[in-house]
Amino acid sequence: MSNNLIPILKIGELEAKVPIVQGGMGVGISMSNLSSAVANAGGIGVISSAEIGMIEPDFNLHPKKASIKALRKEIRKARSMTNGIIGVNIMVAMSDFNEMAIVSLEEGVDILFIGAGLLLKNPLNLVKDKNLKTKIVPIVSSARAFETIFKYWARHYNRIPDAVVVEGPKAGGHLGFKEEQIDNPDYKLEKIVPEVIASAKVYEKKFNKSIPVIPAGGIYTGEDIYKFIKMGASGVQMATRFVATYECDASEKFKEAYVNCKKEDITIIKSPVGMPGRAIKNRFLENVRNGITKPFKCTWQCLKGCNYRSAPYCITQALVNAQKGNLDDGFAFAGSNAYRINKIVSVQELIDELIDGYSQAASKFN
């Protein structure tokens, strides 16, 4: 294979012709429409399970049941639209983690991406089933977190995850970093990735198994992809760029928030769940920052760590509103490079642009 050609991303027997994982974007942003389009373009399409029940009419009355029903429906819908690779992103921090994992396994998704917490002790015994076809891929933000998960799995289950996503501080949404670490060069993705690759090599040798390392957070161009693959990564995860596609499951107004935002509009917020997050400034967030609260009634504690009694607003409701285009009563999470987006394109156009950018970078640097 010519060095100018973008490589295949292999996770076990799965092979993605384009080494791009579309990052899972919760509360209705990445569902069957976007994930199937990415899979059809040769990448790995990912449905986010986070509050996916918002698409069901009984969500406010029975949020957990609605999410179980919606996830099953969206997986089947995606499968009907593509023969490509479909994954589901589940957050350990969500109260319905177990139910979402069960549905995903029952529906035979190709990959489970597991973030927002360490996948260690698991009542589902996900990792004990040697015949499990679904690949398990944790999302970590440091070599230390990688080591914690892989060491625990090796000791308790005599097996290890099938790949790992390494998410840096330039990502959108909730971040796995303290606020003071976000702009600290010691926590840059370019610094974390080689550390994780070095740790992965130890486990690859011990288990005689390939562990693809997939960087995420702030990756924007084909040249960025080339840079990380030259570093030893097997592929990349990208989320922000896929929002501004025709196939993205968000409303047009949500997508326009990306197209119209400027660099100074990208801001770090303190989420009601106690974590920093990256979002696009708007009036809603300004009001919150100025101490204006948004009274709400919590129908169920969707995030384990949410202190809803003292929260200034319900983050789920704010994100549901934004997904539907009501940005007066919500806001859009976004990665650090969202301001660079200036138009909405098709998923295929975006993938073609990224492949072309990769080839040009390879030609220039080889």
Helix-strand blueprint:
Elements: E1 9-11, E2 14-16, E3 20-22, H1 32-40, E4 44-48, H2 63-81, E5 85-91, H3 97-106, E6 111-115, E7 135-140, H4 143-157, E8 164-167, E9 173-174, H5 189-207, E10 213-216, H6 222-230, E11 236-238, H7 240-243, H8 252-260, E12 266-270, E13 276-280, H9 283-289, H10 315-323, H11 347-365
Parallel strand pairs: 3-11, 4-5, 5-6, 6-7, 7-8, 8-10
Antiparallel strand pairs: 1-2, 9-13, 12-13
Characterization of this structure:
It contains eleven helices and 13 strands. With 366 residues, the protein is of the alpha/beta class. The protein folds into two domains: 9-251 and 338-365, Alpha-Beta Barrel (TIM Barrel); 252-329, no CATH class. A hairpin with a 2-residue loop joins β1 and β2. α1 runs parallel beside α2, α4 (143-157) packs parallel to α5 and α6 (222-230) packs across α11 (347-365). The model has no long low-confidence stretch (mean pLDDT 88).
Compact summary:
This protein has 366 residues and is α/β, with parallel strands linked by helices. The protein contains eleven helices and 13 strands.
